[in-house]
Amino acid sequence: MRELVAQYLSHSLSRRRFVSALTKAGLTASAANSVLAAVTSVADAQGAGSATAPVPYVPGRPEPSRARAGTGAPGAAAGIMPFQGTGGAAFAEQLIACGVKYVFGNSASEDAQFYEALVDRPQLKYVLTPHEGPGAAMAAGYIKASGEPAVVMQAGVVGMMNAMGQMFNAWKEQTPLVVYSYRTDQSRRAGRDGFEEVANQEQLAQPITKYSWESPRPDMIPETVRRAFKAAWTPPFGPSYISWHSDYNDDRVRTDIIDQRQFDPRMRVRPNPDEVARAAKLLVEARMPLLIVGDEIYKAKAA
């Protein structure tokens, strides 16, 4: 379905062909038209540049056009905040813009600039975990219990390996967990097998993630983070993994922080009212009703 939505949004598919493809994939005509309406409304809102038309990613977040002191510029476009600072601070700013309230992980010196950025950003709280595996499990559990986004941070290579079991669980359970670990090799010394360096680190997570990517430049850290959240929260949900060279966190960057409401990928698909009435009738007439449901209940906010 992701490919069909992408083709429709890029105008490669007409409305009729989009609905036809959905019905061939197994959806009823009513469900296919509901998907079409949801995708079209999101596309129209984004095309108009509206920051208020899409449903907020999470409640209680600051207005997207409000720049924090010392980081942005006045008069920025709605939902876009110009930023100047370290790569680690840009990472923190984009997490806030993505609606993240809690960061789980083991602190490591390579992420020092990120931790320094938390001092002036009390809305982003760090949860120190005893080990990478429990840290990833805690982050995934928070997402499932609250329905809100979270990220888990780990040390490069070794820390990432310790968390891969929980990354696999998130993959099988379709939990939208965003996982980050720095590359232990700095960009200036890459390829010399120092500091537990592993070539193509992001590819280790590729089989058990929806999206696995290394930021090629420090100014692309926010963009890489946005891509990770968009991939993770696009139905069907699943984990994503991001990484970049450790020295990028210290580099000074000039980039943009974009509010998640500008590209919230979640669709509000409405059920066929006839099927809802039929299900209600079955429940009313059943002598001993038994419902067997999965995680889709909480993901659809039907509970």
Explain what this protein looks like in three dimensions:
- The structure is a single chain.
- The chain is an alpha/beta fold.
- It has two domains: 1-48, no CATH class; 80-262, Thiamin diphosphate (ThDP)-binding fold, Pyr/PP domains (Rossmann fold, 3-Layer(aba) Sandwich), CATH 3.40.50.
- It contains eleven helices and eight strands.
- The strands form two sheets. It has a six-stranded parallel β-sheet with strand order 3-2-4-5-7-6, sandwiched between helices. It has a two-stranded antiparallel sheet with strand order 1-8.
- Helix 7 links the parallel strand 4 and strand 5 (178-181).
- It is globular and about 65 Å long.
- The two termini are 25 Å apart.
- Mean pLDDT is 83; it is low at 48-75.
Show the helix and strand layout:
Elements: H1 2-9, H2 15-24, H3 29-47, E1 80-86, H4 87-97, E2 102-105, H5 112-119, E3 125-128, H6 132-146, E4 151-154, H7 158-173, E5 178-181, H8 201-204, E6 211-214, H9 221-232, E7 240-243, E8 252-258, H10 273-285, H11 296-299
Parallel strand pairs: 2-3, 2-4, 4-5, 5-7, 6-7
Antiparallel strand pairs: 1-8
CATH topology of the largest domain: Rossmann fold
**What string gives the helices and strands in order?**
HHHEHEHEHEHEHEHEEHH
Order the strands across the largest sheet as they lie in space: 3-2-4-5-7-6
Question: How many DSSP-defined strands?
Answer: 8
Total helix count?
11
From the N-terminal CA to the C-terminal CA, the straight-line distance is 25 Å
CATH C-level of the largest domain: Alpha Beta
Q: Which superfamily, in CATH terms, is the homologous superfamily of the largest domain?
A: Thiamin diphosphate (ThDP)-binding fold, Pyr/PP domains
Shape: globular
